[in-house]
Amino acid sequence: MSRPTAIIAEDETPLRDELRALLSDLWPTLAIVAECADGRQAIDAMQSHQPDVAFLDIRMPLANGLEVARYAKNRTHIVFITAYDTFAVQAFEDGAVDYLLKPVDRERLRLAIDRIAAKLATRHPIDSTQLLDQLEARMLARPERMKWITATVGGAVRLISIDDVIYFRSDEKYTRVVTADGEAYIRVTIRDLLPRLDPDMFWQIHRGTIVRVAAIRSVQRDDDGKLQVTFTGKPELLAVSPSFAARFKGL
Question: Domains of the chain (ranges plus CATH)?
């Protein structure tokens, strides 16, 4: 019997490496035939290799995981990788696809492997078209709220809980992510980041700045009467653009 094959599509190299290592340990007979850093590469790999399994990040450059999954050709078992727990819905339990939350939990991956192995043994055709349509409609109707951020710190990549962020600020080609114990950088613009944040938790106060409301210590006016915010445990004063000042009326 031939070895089952798989592709991994994840744009963050350390996370891709971690998943490969876990799969090597938990499913040693699985052959990883391609590793992809973006959706375009993943589509090419799906078409070239027609793998038994595809581990697909929901959010990737050039094409998202749902778009890639449409190239499954009714033979590839899909496992979505997501930082958004609202994708962990009952719809996944119908067996068409599975999901893993970031950071990937070893035991949850083991469960996904057991499910896939059982499906491979039956060799039934896979039809996930209807479920993909439902998930795509959900993504368009209500952007999924970010729970974790994959950010660069020095030469390493780390996962930061959204609850630890104090503010985001544009910094040339990157966005700076500031937490109580340091800062990191992500390659996501403020414009693209904003819809993925809970609007009750995060407010945009400037074209290039988003702050976590619970982290604000005070709101004050400078000598010109313009608003500034300060944060608990941080010395920075961040300016509030006049177009966003109305948020602070009555505070």
Answer: 5-141 (3.40.50.2300), 148-248 (2.40.50.1020)
